[in-house]
Design goal:
D-amino Acid Aminotransferase, Chain A, domain 1, nine-stranded antiparallel sheet, alpha+beta, single chain
Length: about 375
């Protein structure tokens, strides 16, 4: 039985472990919080700092393979483990490219992958040299997640809102649609691509509000999206499960926004809606099994359950019974005992054949199920 480790114990690790029960695998998780969502679902839980070289190295050297559920890990330790024969998915080289948004954007540029025009700045003062480039989105090179670390700057009068750290200044795009594509790639280079999903974002929190799968796209746009996403993942040269987020602008051009080298929020729907979920796919890759089928069983929509504004403390779910009574609706709670405004606490997947019905039910879930304290 192979020993597989996961760095990070959040909800992505939790759902990965829920899928692990179907495979002959001994699971290990390292996280600094013994009450994290994944802690009680693994065979072995190690308290440690995923950013620490020594903690990651000591954790990984006993394993057959190791993966991540968050990018903020010690890549130097993963490189050493890889040299010593531990299978690291994604590869440390790919992780280095993706975990820093500056390096990531330069990688797209070097590999002919279409992305929004950008410049890099080292600090807040550096923004002053690029006032003519605004409006733009400033994205921290490292440390951003779930909408944090991104600041829209519309003009020089908003300079004070900028980050005082190395970052990317990305030209604002007139967005028509935001799309995400999941791709699995095994150690032999075989690839499996999921149908693209369309994401609708909450403009206040800059978090996913709800999504629809498959995205409503013209064939030529679909082909362009798939070709760009496949080119990006091939260029990374690593096994793993990758999420590629893209913009379609008002002129119909397709631009890569960013990529994630792991299971992703945009793929939660695959648990119920697809033959092989993104979590199942990653286990197949880690264990050297054949890739799963990405075929959709039914179209779906997905709603994130986010902590309501003005509520912090012990979590209480309002409207849970009503949502559980809805047909073809699946509730996933992440086991977090404490809520706070904007915190991801769970998600709801809705299955159905009719797109309008999927959107209607998504809004019904949003109105009914509230995360309070």
């Amino acid at each position: 039985m192979k020993k597989i480790g996961i760095l990070g114990g959040g909800q992505l690790g939790r759902m990965l472990l829920q899928e692990a029960a179907n495979y002959p695998v001994e699971t290990w998780v390292m996280e600094n919080d013994p009450a994290c969502p994944a802690a009680h679902l693994c065979h072995h839980f190690i308290i440690g700092n995923i950013r620490s070289y020594e903690d990651v190295y000591q954790f990984g050297k006993q394993l057959d393979a190791i993966t991540i559920e968050i990018e903020a890990v010690n890549v130097d330790a993963l490189e050493q483990l890889e040299k010593e024969g531990v299978k690291v998915v994604p590869s440390p080289a790919a992780l280095r490219i993706i975990k820093n948004k500056i390096v990531q954007k330069e990688f797209y540029q070097a590999n002919g992958i279409p992305t929004a025009e950008f410049v890099t700045v080292t600090d807040k003062e550096g923004l002053k040299e690029h006032f003519a480039f605004l409006p733009a989105a400033q994205k921290l090179g490292e440390g951003g997640y779930d909408g944090k670390g991104v600041q829209l700057l519309h003009g020089e009068d908003e300079w004070h809102l900028g980050f005082d750290a190395p970052s990317v200044l990305e030209k604002k795009v007139a967005i028509d649609k935001e799309i995400a594509v999941l791709i699995g790639i095994d150690s032999k280079g075989n690839m499996a691509i999921y149908p693209p999903v369309e994401m609708v974002f909450d403009p206040q929190l800059n978090l996913l509000d709800y999504q629809i799968a498959p995205a409503d796209l013209q064939d030529k746009t679909l082909w362009k999206i798939e070709a760009i996403a496949l080119k990006l993942v091939k260029a990374l040269g690593s096994a793993g499960l990758f999420a590629v987020e893209l913009f379609i602008d008002k002129e119909g051009e397709v631009l890569v926004n960013e990529a994630a080298p792991r299971v992703h929020n945009s793929g939660h729907h695959t648990i119920e809606a697809h033959s092989s979920s993104q979590y199942d796919m990653l286990w197949r890759i880690l264990l050297d099994y054949p890739l799963g089928s990405t075929a959709a069983i039914l179209p779906s929509s997905l709603v994130n359950l986010i902590g309501e504004p003005e509520f912090s403390g012990d979590v209480r779910y309002e409207g849970l019974e009503e949502v559980l009574a809805m047909e073809d609706v699946y509730v996933h709670l992440y086991g977090k005992n404490q809520t706070k405004p904007g915190r991801k606490m769970g998600h709801v997947t809705i299955l159905g054949k009719d797109r309008h019905d999927l959107v209607r039910k998504a809004h019904q879930v949003k109105r009914t199920l509230k995360v309070k304290s």
